[in-house]
Each structure stands twice: as C-alpha cells, then as structure tokens.
Amino acid sequence: MHRPTLAHTFAERLPDMVAEVVPTDFPNPQVAVLNEPLAAELGIETEWLRTAEGTAWLAGSSGGHATAYAGHQFGQFVPLLGDGRALLLGDIDGREIQLKGSGRTPFSRPGSDGRGAIGPMLREHLVSEFMHAVGIPTTRSLAVVATGEHVIRQQGRVPGGILVRVATSHLRVGSVQYAATQSPALVEEVIRAAGFDTPLELLNTVVDRQLGLVAQWMRIGFVHGVMNTDNTALSGETIDYGPCAFTEDFDLSAVFSSIDTAGRYAFGNQPSIIAWNLARLAEAMFPLLDLDAAREVFASIQSRWDELWARQQESGPEVPLFLPRNRMLQDALNAAEAGGDYAPYRALLAAVTDPYNPEAGPEWMTRPEESGPFTTYCGT
C-alpha cells in the first residue's frame, strides 16, 4: 500500500493564481464515508486510504495550494475571493483532488476558521453522487473525513468535517475574472490551462455546457442556491452544493438558502442567472475577442436563457425514483451530526446512488414530501 503520486498541473500552469498552503493538523481524523468505486477509478488503494497515513492524507497532511479567483457574489463584484477554506492537493489521471473545509489559507476571509462542519460535507457527498448517478455533470466526492474537532455554526458546536472533492478542473468563471483584473496575458494563460486555443472557443463551449447543465437541473427540481460566478465551472460540472435543495412542485419562486434573502437564485431564476454569469465571462475576455465575434456572442447569450427553457421542456431521461428529498436528507444529516448514527444516511445514500432501481431503498423514500418552508445553510 502506498501514497498516490499527484501532479500539480494547476500550480505549474498558473503559478500567479495559487498560494502554497501548509498542512493542517487535526486531532483524530476518521473516514466517515469513502467512495470506493471512485477511488478505484483514480487508482488509489482503498485499503491505504483507511490507514492512519491515508486518512491523514485525506485530511490534508501533505499540504497543497489554494487557488485565486474573483467573482460576482449575489451580483456584487469582488476582485479577489480565492479558496478560503479549500486546498488543492493536486491531480491524478486528469482529475483534480481538492479538500473543502481543511483550514485557513492565504485567501481566508477575516473571521473565517477555514474549517467545515460534518453536516454540509455529508450533504455535498450525497447530492453530488446522486447527480452523477442520474447523468448530470458534476464534481464528485471521494470521501468525507470527520476531523475529530468541533466548529461553531448556526446550530451551535458541531463536529468538524472535510469533503474530498474530485473535479475535471476547478477553473471557473471567477478564475477568468480574476485574471482579467491582472493582465490580458494571464487571461490567455487561463484559457490555455482550461484546454482551449482561443477565447471564442472557450466562450462558445462554456455557453453550451452551462446551458445544458442548468436545463438538466431544472428537469429534476434542483435549486443550486448560490450561483455566483465563482461557482460556475468552465468544465460545465456542478460545483459547490452548500445550500442546495430540491423542489418537487415545479415552484419557480422556490428559495431554500438562508443567505438568498432576495430570491436572486430562486429555482425559476436559474436560466436567466446562468445567462448573466456567461455574459460576465464574455466581459472578462472582451479585450481578447474580435469585436464582431464578441457582439455575436453577447447577442447569442441573451437570446439563448429561451433556448434553455426549451431544452428543459424537451423529453428528458427517466425520472429517478429516489431523490435526496429535503427533509429526509436533513433528518439523516441530523442523526449523523448530532448522535453519530450514520445508518439513515447510508440507507439514503444507497438509494439515491441507484435511483432508478426500486429495490435500492424502501418505498417511503420515493414519496414526494409536503411542500412548505425549508431552509438550508452554506456551512460556513
């Protein structure tokens, strides 16, 4: 058994957009959930991950890098955000491994502990693996680690946790926006690092990816909850499940996130918001775009949040029997977080990762929940 060998492609290609982060020591890290099939895909030995050395590695013992990015948060531009509680360990087999909730970084905001609570990390693990199971592009979760310490959150003192996230790339619209505040040359470097030859190629591809992605969200009632430009991945993968939830009533006004007080990211606003985010991407690359081509793309982005609605209404794949329904998921998280009882969580995880199989879970898990007020929190 041995430690996986990771490359550091992001840091090597974009050295001006990373900051080195030293390891954080945790008192007693334990693997709470391990995605063994994903570990096998990545060529990482599951037996080693369950050893003390492997668990420490999952908790960030080898250190890594935090990445810089900007972003529009609820419509307001912030020129430097960056990974305030995330650590990019490196990449393997063409996929990046990043920790979420592993401690402070040079980009941490004042007052932030950089830690994660176990509940939101378990939420992201389960919902992202459900999205993968139904064929929606998404970041994935390799593991959730209980850190052995406690953090202070809305509900008081709760167990700490780390999500081990796997993505094709953690470059996002906010990455291009940050580069644009620095120099056109850095924008060009980001474009190449994202795998594109020209800004127009990147823009057209990301527009197609994101329109398709949000159309798939709408089909299953997924409400992302925090569609800031720094949470819009160039890869077209769903990223950052902090305050996400599901609406089964096709309620266009549905809002669940505690921080979305004005309903900017309500369920029915998601098509127009993704168009708005894509327009911000075009703006960030504007100096590098041919003027006529840029005008066409701007017009295309606006005329297409209609194309997205049309895509949403097309006949899609079979509707899954099992969804991470809001209250049943929260009940499972409460049992794990408050009492260390993971049985309800594991039962729900088994059902939603085999969502078309009626034998994957009990019948009651397939029943729609009553509509009504429900609030989610981002975990910070």
From TrEMBL:
UniProt binding sites for Mg(2+): 231, 240
Xref: InterPro entries: SelO
Keyword Manganese recorded: yes
Active-site residues, Swiss-Prot/TrEMBL: 230
Taxonomy, superkingdom: Bacteria
Pfam hit, one: SelO
Residues that bind ATP: 82, 84-85, 100, 113-114, 165, 172, 240
EC number: 2.7.7.-, 2.7.7.108
Keywords of the record: ATP-binding, Magnesium, Manganese, Metal-binding, Nucleotide-binding, Nucleotidyltransferase, Transferase
Needed co-factor(s): Mg(2+); Mn(2+)
Molecular function terms from GO: AMPylase activity; ATP binding; magnesium ion binding; manganese ion binding
Catalytic activity: L-tyrosyl-[protein] + ATP = O-(5'-adenylyl)-L-tyrosyl-[protein] + diphosphate; L-tyrosyl-[protein] + UTP = O-(5'-uridylyl)-L-tyrosyl-[protein] + diphosphate; L-seryl-[protein] + ATP = 3-O-(5'-adenylyl)-L-seryl-[protein] + diphosphate; L-histidyl-[protein] + UTP = N(tele)-(5'-uridylyl)-L-histidyl-[protein] + diphosphate
Homology family: Belongs to the SELO family.
Primary role: Nucleotidyltransferase involved in the post-translational modification of proteins. It can catalyze the addition of adenosine monophosphate (AMP) or uridine monophosphate (UMP) to a protein, resulting in modifications known as AMPylation and UMPylation.
HAMAP family: SelO (MF_00692)
Protein name, UniProt field: Protein nucleotidyltransferase YdiU
